[in-house]
Amino acid sequence: MSPRAALGLALVATLICGAAQAATFHVAASAAQGGDGSPARPFASIRAAFLSGRLQDGDRLSLAPGFYGAPTIRAAGPRDAKTKASGRIIRDVVIEGEGDPRAAAALPDPGRGAAWLGKVVIHQAEGLTLSNLLVMPRPRPPEPAPAPIARADDGTPLPLPRPARAKRRGPLVLAHRTARRVALEQLEMRSAPDAEIARWTRGVDWRRNARDGIRLDGPDGAARGNRLTGVNFGIQATGPRAVVENNEIDLFGADGIRVLGDGSRVHGNLVHNCVATGSGNHDDGIQSWSVGKNRRAGSGVVRDVTLSANRIFEWDRPGSARLACSLQGIGLFDGVYENLTIENNLIVVDQYHGITVMGGKNVRVVNNTVLNRRPGPQARPWIMFRAHKNGARFGGNVAANNMAMKFSLPDWTLSRRNLRIRYPGLVIRDRSAGDYRPRPDGPAHRAADPAFQPPRDLNGAPRPASGGDLGALESGD
């Protein structure tokens, strides 16, 4: 046997042995202390499982339905009995809930239908995955009516003014910088039950009650397939090489997604229904900015980020849009931004900034559709390139194959086959029915420059090699 073949067999054997050693341990919020993780004697908490000494790299924790409080997860084993040193990090552990979190969120007691956590803070972890969990603070009981302490001239009791509630601070899931390769998958997240969110009819209600959703500060973090409802900021990924994909953020009061780390990817997300809270934040569907050594915005460089196949709708709920904010689409205002790709995004907002890049260097903005959410001719939103706020201009920027209500592209940006939409009905199939594909008889059909188009559209449909349609979607004809 050759040395190469022997090495291959050894690697296969190692993988097989590792898979065979992986075990599933059980956790139940109602269990007694001292369990061993078996179905008959489950651990009483996530912390108890990590401190049991039984978990190994790659093991799985199965959480039975119930309320688990607001755990701080440190994926470290028990301390050394002699030296008292911290236990080693147990890598690649999967914490997965049983039940249906989305259905459970509507129950009077969500813990009867899913593993329910009030919030989660993660320290000292590597390769940890949280999956199929409901993350929602436990509803607080209604405040009692204040007791009267004075009377009017006619003897009518005068109640005390109702005190303002303190804002519930901190994200629902926070992964600190010491948490590496953390993955959050298929989480059902909300600041409160739907019935309570429906009662937030004023901006002050949102400012007091809406929580931030996800914050990933460590390297190589991932948020995949999560659903966030009734939050303030949606997903914030500040660490390098983050992946934010296929999430839904519905009813949010600030920015939908923030991505600051080099080498990050934001793909396939649905960001919709931005609420005007009066907080003073300029709300963006997706936002990024650079930070230098002085920690000031616009003083550094963000590199190698991809924003692709995202859908951003300022408001798409049926009925009144009275609560709708004025949402910006993709706002990149504080560069430098180097080697960014912005492609196949569908943006329907009422603000001026559909896609704005200030301080771009080798930035590609290709095959995006940017529309106003209001029907008829509009002069916004636009696709815009501008110099850095310090006046610096950089080369290598491209805007090609886009459709928008307006363009602002300086002569130092390469512009190819961009279509300004004056009358959307002549270009888009049926926006009232949610069909944003180009009309096959319209000016966007087969008008793209193939040298700049991505190989597939927003939905994954292949683009003709000879040149597909302008914008994020192929017409299909």
From TrEMBL:
Q: A Pfam family in this protein?
A: Beta_helix
Q: Point to the regions of Pro residues compositional bias.
A: 138-147
Keywords (alphabetical) are:
Signal
Query: Would the keyword Signal turn up in this protein's UniProt record?
Result: yes
Q: Where is the Right handed beta helix domain?
A: 213-370
Q: Which residues form a coiled coil?
A: none
Record region (Disordered): 136-166, 432-477
Q: What is the designated name of this protein? A: Right handed beta helix region
Basic and acidic residues biased stretches: 432-448
| Signal peptide segment | 1-22
Known InterPro entries for this protein?
Answer: Beta_helix, PbH1, Pectin_lyas_fold, Pectin_lyase_fold/virulence
